[in-house]
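Review form for a predicted model. The reviewer records the input and the model, then writes brief findings.
Reviewer: anonymous (R2)
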Amino acid sequence: MALIDFFNRKYAAPAPPAEAPEPEAWPEIGETWKPEGLPVAERYYNQAQAVVLVARTSQDPYGTAYYLVACLGCHFLSTRTKHHSHYIRYALGQAAEAANAHAGTCRALPRELPPRPDEDTARNLLRSWVTDMARRNLLHPDIDLDLAEFDSGRLELQRTNEWIQTELEALAAERSDLLAVRRDDRTGTVRFRARPLPR
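Model under review:
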């Protein structure tokens, strides 16, 4: 081989790196991962491919949003995290950590959300929660009842905050011995004041 051939030799270009595979789509089972009244912010897989949801429950007047964590495989549901000696509602980052931690240990198989109840069933469910809280004397006289008290039942109820507030106002009008409405004229917010019932 002549020296000139060495300089004229063409080398094949290196093969382009293999493209990363497309991420697999989330397993959508109908609309079961989008319950009404619970906007889903993030989703995680558990070890058996069940979905762990991070869903927004409410937002305060200052723009702070709060979240819950719910596993669609097992019945894990968490609405608060411990901060020193207090339990506080989840911000998005805290909820994401809790969801990821649960997904890493849960081995439950996927299941669907419970079916969305009809209006009468949902109304009766909400009213029974308020009555049960009062009968168990968990609420002291004239304690403000925040909508966050119902966060643990959001997946079962599948209703918006506006719906819950409207139903609580209707209940207060019917059962003033159980619930009173307090309106703040300055901010326009509505608070509910619960009264304990005898057992």
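Findings: Confidence is low (pLDDT under 50) at residues 22-26, 28-32.
Further findings: The radius of gyration is 26 Å.
Recommendation: see findings above.
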